[in-house]
Amino acid sequence: MRTEDKSIATAKANKKIYRGTGRRKNAIAAVVLKPGSGKRVINGREFTEYFHSDVQNMIANLPFAILGNAEEWDVEVTARGGGIAGQMGAVRLGIARALVNNDETVKPVLKKEGLMTRDSRVVERKKFGRKKARKRFQFSKR
Question: Cα–Cα distance between 14 and 115 in angstroms, integer?
């Protein structure tokens, strides 16, 4: 191995990345955490641009808010499927899982806040003979 190859390998070893996958409803988010300056990108756009309201942005970044280390990590997310609300929940779970991959000692703190649990609620299917999943057509005696 040449010396320049060794230096590249050393640089890659120093720049660890941590991955986490989050799911919610039909949304899936693949999260990559890198040590950095606090840059947040989802599908090539900034978090504030992608999640339009401050509440959505706050919920997606909740694991960082609890641990207080938001400025230490660059976040790169690929989210697909579902809608904005589902993707927001998937990103939150993915970030929490990636942080646990980095440091196992934060798992009890995140678990206590309910961030390590996948929200398994999905939309109930529509049944035949009904207007929606549970709603019925109006009954008339005549």
Answer: 28
Query: Taking the alpha carbons of 6, 8, 11, 12 in that order, is the dihedral positive or negative?
Result: negative
CA distances from 70 to 6, 40, 60, 91, 99 (A): 32, 10, 12, 15, 11
Give the number of other CB atoms < 10 A from CB of residue 40: 22
Tens-place pLDDT, residues 13-60: 567 899 999 999 999 999 999 999 989 999 999 999 999 899 999 999
Please give the structure tokens belonging to residue 77. Answer: 């997310």
Write down the pLDDT at residue 135: 96
State pTM to two decimals: 0.84
Phi/psi of residue 76, each to 5°? -125, 120
Q: Which domain holds residue 38?
A: 16-112
CATH number of residue 26's parent domain = 3.30.230.10
Contact 43, 60 (CB under 8 A): no
How would you class 136 by CB atoms within 10 Å of its CB: exposed for 0-12, middle for 13-18, buried for 19 or more? exposed
Residue 7 lies in a domain: no
